[in-house]
Amino acid sequence: MFFYYFIFLVIIYFLFISKNGRIHEKILLLIAAIFLILIAGLRRPGIDSDYGTYIEIFNKFDTPLSYFKEFSVNSFFEPAYYLIPTFISADLGLSYLWVFVIFAIIAIGLKFVAISRLTDFTFLSVLVYYGNYFILHDMTQIRAGVASAILLLCIPQIEKRNLSGFLLLISVGILFHYSTIIFLPAYFLSSTKINKKLYLSLLFIPFVFYFSKFNIFSVLQIFNLGFISEKIEIYNNLLESDIFTGINVFNIIFMVQLISCTVFIIKSDLLQKK
Length: 274
Fold this sequence. Notes:
The protein is mainly alpha-helical and 274 residues long. It has two domains: 1-189, no CATH class; 193-274, no CATH class. The chain contains 15 helices and no strands. It has helices at residues 2-19, 25-41, 51-60, 64-69, 71-74, 79-91, 97-118, 122-138, 142-159, 163-176, 196-212, 216-220, 227-240, 252-266, 268-273. Helix 1 runs antiparallel to helix 2, helix 7 (97-118) packs parallel to helix 9 and helix 11 (196-212) packs antiparallel against helix 14. The longest helix is centred in the middle third of the chain and has 22 residues, at 97-118. The radius of gyration is 20 Å and the shape is globular.
């Protein structure tokens, strides 16, 4: 783990030297992006908990054309999740290592593009991303890594009220992770004012579900959502099998994030002025 703490310190170093102007911030940002892409894309098996599972799934895939020939079966897998590994393996004859490299390039590259467009606090944002999401998404949940990067790119489209651009990005995100579709209502959020009650509700309603043992997947199973219903059924079965009972929702990292977000929302007016 020391290696990952060291990377965190390197990003802090980049933050300081970018502020004194010795090296242009965009150059440092490019270096940081390339470095994180190499770490995530070239990682060895065993570094993350899902690497072996990905290889097992990729070995079950056939060819890109087979995805469409047997769509009723293969539609369970997102198009990009199926087509990228099969194209690299079946068509190019390359190892699956390149699948992780491609996903890392797309996910991390797009996140850094989004960060450079969305904020003046570039390396502070990179620190937040690296400390919270890099290992979780880009080294473990690689589909979510790409989808979350695309969602970041959706924010400027919401600000500009560009519905076509927003829908295009959401559609691309769905190709990597079907759950991206749940972010469609985000287009109707205000880009000029924070609805504090709404955002605080989004933070704390899940706790209500947790303590009341309300299973949202059981409700969603009532509706016929095609291949999405298959995924819902799997998630619901996992919940009912008590596989997640060991998860502590009051762990220190989560609580720090929850408190920080709560304070930022409540003090959003002050933050905007400052």
